[in-house]
Amino acid sequence: MTDTAPPPGTAAPSPPDAAASNAALRAFLHGLPGVDEVGVQARAADLATRSIKTTAKARAIDLAIRMVDLTTLEGADTPGKVRALCAKAVRPDPADRSVPSVAAVCVYPDLARTAADALAGSGVAVASVATAFPSGRAPLEAKLADTRRAVADGAAEIDMVIDRGAFLAGDYRAVHDQITAVKEACGPAHLKVILETGELATYDNVRRASWLAIHAGADFIKTSTGKVSPAATLPVTLIMLEAVRDHHAATGRRVGVKPAGGIRTTKDALRNLVLVNEVAGPGWLDPAHFRLGASSLLNDLLMQRTRLSTGSYPGPDYYTLD
Ligand SMILES: O=C[C@H](O)COP(=O)(O)O
């Protein structure tokens, strides 16, 4: 339990029903307990200093690998680059079959088919950003078409961005309705809702956006696109973990969390796992409920894994580029 929120089940006023007016949504979101900024930063900093025993570290690194959404979201992405990333996702270290596969490969919608073909039968999911990633500035019809295309091309997971302009203008109903419409367009695909916390200005807004996305039906809430700084900071992830914890306590529905953006080192990954365990609880220590969105974390996890088992680092050219 953190000192930044009341006990599970008491953190929020009762959510309004699905058809609630913007005023009712506003009353709910602004009725949430305010975030104690200093307290949340101190708690995150304290948890970041926790050390992990060597045996537990080996297990934690493998768990972190299994939680990675291996990401490429560049304008210069090519089918060849995506195929190479998929090969790495399935077998991160071709010389060591004990290294687990990652959870998913995350790409732009036009490359979802390429990724789906490359990952067929591997158990690694295709995740695709959608809804005019990263800005989210497009008409709803375009966002829904973006989503449907990615799912039709093989994406089992959709990472949508919220309309931050509408959120910051206080039009919570519009943000809620876009999320529910995209969720419907997803069909069987899971929906991760990107809050882009670096643009939300306050921790209170991070808490409000978390509850809004959860209330609208998100399967996961995700911190960032990776295109805006700051991205996945520990205090922000902590606030989001509190929201899913308290929602689970109140309803029994377990929403996942995905910090993404700027997570580059094994130390970053393990700090996140400590946070998950201490704030949300061990029920989230699973790729079904926690992911690490990252374009260049996997190699460091592989290097630290090798160092733990052999006592030395592999050479700098041992792993293919992330
Ligand atoms: O969704 C994942 C992010 O785009 C990855 O960000 P990153 O390149 O900072 O790891």
From TrEMBL:
EC number(s) per entry: 4.1.2.4
InterPro entries: Aldolase_TIM, DeoC, DeoC/FbaB/LacD_aldolase
UniProt superkingdom: Bacteria
SUPFAM superfamilies hit by this protein: Aldolase
Protein name (database record): Deoxyribose-phosphate aldolase
GO biological process, one term: carbohydrate catabolic process
Pathway assigned in UniProt: Carbohydrate degradation; 2-deoxy-D-ribose 1-phosphate degradation; D-glyceraldehyde 3-phosphate and acetaldehyde from 2-deoxy-alpha-D-ribose 1-phosphate: step 2/2
Uppermost EC category: lyase
Keyword Endoplasmic reticulum: no
GO molecular function, one term: deoxyribose-phosphate aldolase activity
UniProt keyword annotations, A-Z: Lyase, Schiff base
Similarity comment: family membership: Belongs to the DeoC/FbaB aldolase family. DeoC type 2 subfamily.
